[in-house]
Design a protein that fits this description.
The complex is a heterodimer.
Chain A: H1 4-20, H2 27-51, E1 57-60, E2 75-78, H3 80-100, H4 109-127, H5 131-149, H6 156-187, H7 192-199, H8 206-222, H9 230-238, H10 241-271, H11 275-299, H12 303-323, H13 327-358, H14 374-391, H15 399-411, H16 417-441, H17 472-487, H18 494-505, H19 508-517, H20 533-554, H21 564-580, H22 585-607
Antiparallel strand pairs in A: 1-2
Helix pairs in contact in A: 1-2, 1-4, 2-3, 2-4, 3-4, 3-10, 3-13, 3-17, 4-5, 4-10, 5-6, 5-10, 6-8, 6-9, 6-22, 7-10, 7-19, 8-10, 8-22, 9-12, 10-12, 10-13, 10-19, 11-12, 11-16, 12-13, 12-16, 13-14, 13-15, 13-17, 13-18, 14-16, 14-17, 15-20, 16-20
Chain B: H1 4-22, H2 26-48, H3 70-101
Helix pairs in contact in B: 1-2, 2-3
Classes of the chains: A mainly alpha, B mainly alpha.
């Protein structure tokens, strides 16, 4: 008897109990049940992570084990990266529930139930070894997420954000459904390992191209990749702030995890001859996403929207890592996601503290508010620390992942992508530093009180009214997450561990052996580790972030007349980019349709 | 084995997406999403179809009688359940939009941009 199914069952049972029972409606009971359930999942996932080290833990639901290498049943196939991702999810949910305990004024027990269902789905998604089961968990996760975004349903913003989110992601799910149907028609299998075995060595054709395009499109919508990222900024701007921490920390990354998992288990055998052509496609999508996200991030004064675009930008960087289709890229993405999750969730919680205190998330209207008392000064410090972690300053935060990514890109012949890593992480961290300077330092110039950007007064009711102190239960998780984000790079042996895990993750043949025959022959690799030049790139990111922040805070009067026309043209371009984010769900679906068509045609040309 | 069910599925999907893109009414939008999802039911059932085979209900069938693939039918059932849940949630949002803001036009809800 394995503990793997308990990881999904525990939060679901707790959620059902919370939703069904009257006794549990009291606030402190709901909080305790929620936190206890998520802590239990943390422990279970950590145990699984320990077990999955040598061979993947494979559990067949209902005892439907494969016979002679043919799987009819549904499996949970837990490898190191999957279990690691699940542990990360559970940790984030625990921190979020602790943070929410005193955050909302009037939050029902249903909030806890929804978060627990959300967690069960995400954890199940990480552990699943079955393509269709992944989709079921994906849908469960999405539906809980739609409801969480629309939690403050009495306002215009959350309503619109939830509709855009739900429609975009449902169209994505339709694409995945169609892709799975085609793939099943070809292979007669739904288990990832079994699909991989059936396809291995066959020549790819149009059906495989279309099925892969549909599945990738669906999961990239969840991962908010340009040009299907529009829903994310809308949903994050209006979701309750603790929920944003969860979305940004883990949900978006799960879309990319799915793409990597499905490519490496099911499609590697059939698409690897075309990997050289597939690589630039994925890397370029990542590059455009990273740059568009970073540019939009700098334009925002709504703090949650700013962090949302920062997440989009980082999603692009993760996609560059994964798109290299090398195990070193997967290792980079895993380490990057680890550092980014803690930093980004902590930053969202800092914004949550500001929202709780001042009922306001507009950077300019919060100018100088952050110097009021010791608690807020601490938050200011955390804000700066979050920015430093996001920039990947030497040894801190995302440093490990970013350095591995740059190394992997250079090895695969994409040395120029290092510039994208430096630019995107510098710009997104610069935006956070600028906000910290404005809010906690009171620096920068005053703008006219009503500028052109649409003002949202929706935020006021999330916490009802301003408070004069910040509860300890909000500060503790924020501090803990920030410290973890900073310290992640110091974990001894982490770099070798992720490289080892990634090499196993990308070994489709051994994975299939472990799932279908009970034993996989994984080869061990020689980990590469860090290089001296990584410190140079990392310092460049940090310097860029500080320059951007300083220029936007103090450089208002800096006018170079020769750059005038160039500047006007750049501003017109930015304006156009802003208009694309129209907030209209029809436009978003049009983009998705176009992107899906483009992807299918591109893949068709690649496998031809 | 014919191409017809696949072509019909693509046709239905295109109309559903066209409806979502041009929709000016939230209820209409939800129905169009359902139409697009219906394309996947057709595709699933089309994938499992065999000429001259019976429905996969084994009571009363002689052993060895060919049946259509029951797995895709189970998948279609899951698909329908998911679609029903999403529709219910979106319709609840549409009701809220009408109640609170007196509009069901997604264009008039705009508070998010740029």
């Amino acid at each position: 008897m394995s503990i793997a199914p308990l990881v999904v069952a525990v939060p679901l049972v707790a959620a059902a109990a919370l939703a069904a029972s009257d006794f549990l409606h009291r606030r402190w009971i709901a909080d305790s049940v929620g936190i206890a359930a998520s802590l239990a999942v943390v422990v279970l996932c950590a145990i699984l992570l320990g077990h999955a080290g040598r061979q993947p833990v494979v559990y067949w639901l209902g005892g439907w084990e494969p016979h002679h290498g043919v799987a009819l049943g549904v499996s949970l196939s837990v490898d190191t990266l999957g279990a690691g991702m699940a542990t990360l999810v559970a940790l984030m949910v625990t921190a979020t529930l602790v943070f929410s305990a005193r955050y909302f004024e009037a939050v029902g027990h249903l909030f806890h139930a929804l978060v627990l269902v959300f967690m069960a789905a995400m954890v199940g998604f990480c552990l699943s070894g079955d393509l269709f089961n992944m989709l079921v968990f994906f849908e469960l996760m999405s539906i809980a997420a739609y409801a969480l975004v629309a939690y403050k349903i009495e306002e215009r913003g959350p309503l619109q954000g939830a509709i855009n989110f739900a429609v975009s992601n449902s169209v994505g799910a339709i694409a995945i459904f169609a892709g799975i149907a085609l793939l099943y028609g070809r292979t007669g299998a739904l288990n990832l390992a079994q699909i991989g075995e059936e396809l291995n060595g066959q020549p790819p054709d149009a059906l495989i191209a279309v099925a892969f395009a549909l599945i990738v499109l669906g999961f990239l919508i969840k991962a908010a990749v340009f040009p299907v990222h529009f829903w994310l900024a809308d949903a994050y701007a209006v979701a309750p702030t603790p929920v944003c921490a969860l979305f940004s920390g883990v949900m978006v990354e799960l879309g990319l995890y799915a793409v990597a998992r499905i490519y490496w288990t099911a499609f590697d055998g059939i698409l690897s001859p075309d990997a050289a052509a597939l690589r630039p496609l994925l890397v370029w999508i990542g590059v455009v996403t990273a740059l568009v996200g970073a540019t939009m991030c700098l334009r925002q004064r709504h703090l949650k929207r700013m962090l949302a675009f920062s997440t989009i930008s980082h999603g692009g960087l993760f996609l560059i890592c994964l798109g290299l289709l090398e195990h070193s890229g997967v290792a980079a993405a895993a380490a990057y996601i680890l550092g980014h999750s803690f930093a980004k969730a902590a930053l969202f919680m800092c914004v949550g503290v500001l929202l709780h205190r001042f009922a306001e998330v507009d950077e300019l209207r919060l100018r100088g508010c952050g110097a009021a008392d010791a608690g807020l000064k601490l938050v200011g410090l955390l804000f700066v620390a979050g920015a430093v972690a996001l920039a990947g300053a030497p040894m801190l935060g995302v440093f490990l992942g970013k350095s591995l990514g740059e190394g992997a890109a250079e090895e695969s012949g994409y040395a120029w992508a290092i510039a994208v890593f430096v630019l995107a992480s510098g710009m997104t961290a610069g935006a956070v530093l600028r906000a910290a300077g404005t809010i906690f330092g009171g620096w920068g110039e005053d703008e006219p009180p009503e500028s052109e950007q649409p003002q949202e007064h929706d935020e006021e009711t999330e916490t009802r009214e301003p408070h004069d102190r910040t509860p300890l239960t909000m500060l503790i998780p924020t501090v803990a997450l920030t410290l973890t984000a900073l310290a992640v790079g110091f974990l001894p042996g982490l770099d070798h561990a992720v490289e080892e895990a990634a090499a196993r993750f990308t070994d489709a043949h051994a994975y299939a052996g472990a799932v279908l025959h009970g034993h996989g022959a994984f080869e061990s690799i020689e980990p590469k580790g860090l290089k001296a030049v990584d410190f140079l790139w990392s310092s460049l990111s940090l310097a860029l972030a500080m320059t951007i922040a300083a220029l936007s805070l103090f450089g208002g009067k800096l006018e170079v007349s020769a750059l005038g026309p160039l500047r006007r043209r750049a501003e017109a371009g930015l304006e156009l980019l802003g208009t694309l984010h129209s907030g209209h769900v029809g436009d978003y679906v049009a983009w998705i349709t176009a992107a899906g068509g483009g992807l299918a045609v591109a893949l068709g040309l690649i496998v031809r | 084995m014919t191409l017809l069910p696949y072509l019909v599925a693509v046709w239905v999907l295109c109309w559903g997406l066209y409806g979502i893109v041009t929709s000016r009414h939230l209820v209409h939008l939800v129905v169009c999403l359902g139409v697009a999802q219906a394309a996947t039911y057709l595709l699933l059932v089309g994938v499992g179809y065999r000429n001259g085979a019976a429905a996969p209900i084994f009571a009363g069938l002689a052993p060895g009688t060919p049946v259509v693939d029951p797995v895709v039918q189970a998948l279609a059932l899951v698909d329908i359940v998911v679609e029903a849940t999403v529709s219910a949630l979106l319709l609840a949002l549409a009701v809220q939009a009408q109640k609170r803001f007196g509009t069901v036009d997604p264009d008039e809800l705009h508070s998010l941009r740029g």
